[in-house]
Amino acid sequence: MVELGVNIDHVATLREARKGTEPDVIAAAKICELAGAHQLTIHLRQDRRHIQDRDLALLSKTLHVRLNLEMAAVDEIITIALRAKPHTVCLVPENRQEVTTEGGLNVVGQKRRLSDVVKRFHGAGVKVSMFIDPELKQVDASAAAKADYVELHTGPYANARQDQIVGELNRMVDAAAHAINAGLVFNAGHGLTRHNLPAVAAIPGLNEVNIGHSIVSRAVFIGLENAVKEILAILKECSK
Ligand code: PXP
Question: Which of 101, 149, 228 to mutate to test the pocket of ligand 1 (most atoms within 8 A of CB)?
């Protein structure tokens, strides 16, 4: 079965709206874990707009499932991540003006630097994922940098017009096959919902999806546990 990483950044977004303690991010993570999520995902952004350092420290000590830390490959965050030692770091591009992560990481353009970053994380026993657009050259560069995983950016598929959807899916199918051939594990994420997930979950070789905004949004209406279970049921159905 394709595994589920639940991104709980937007539980923290709601908390930070009042700079208080509610909703409790750690309690939310535990609900996701008990609902059957295989992994929790958080993004410690340089501007700390949602997840805070304390969230990372507490989650890395209290979770039973894997913790996946999305992060920019910058010295400040690398130091924090090496201390927290999550199961995986997912390297993402970060732009302070953006509402959410926009494009994939340009691994081609910074292969040498990213190889060094991968080496540092591997030295600490932390696996590394590259969040990339579904482009063969970015897959090749990720393999050359010795990443463990690529997470293909599903945003362009999620936002595609009706007549572009098949083209975007095919781009992912090709990039996924290329990644698996190169010895990488293939994950996917961004903009996925209960409606657009089945087509992605059917891509051969998919290991894991990371889903945040749509689960937290759905939780407002049906509760977090049910929102996680709803996505797990879709993944289970797709793996039959
Ligand atoms: N994967 C990565 C690498 C991301 O940056 C994000 C957004 O933080 C997600 C998955 C989750 O995206 P969404 O919140 O749109 O489900």
Answer: 101
Q: At what angle do helices 136-144 and 165-181 cross, to 10 degrees?
A: 30
Cα of 58 from ligand 1 centre, angstroms: 21
Cα separation, 20 vs 12, in Å, equals 10
For the domain covering 3-238, report its CATH number: 3.20.20.70
Q: Tell whether the model's pLDDT for residue 45 goes beyond 80.
A: yes
| Residue-range domain boundaries for the chain | 3-238
Please tell me whether residue 40 adopts helix, strand or coil conformation. strand
Read off the pTM: 0.97
Q: Which token pair is 7?
A: 């991104």
Give me the residue label for tokens 């709980």.
8
C-alpha 79/C-alpha 58 separation (Å) is 17
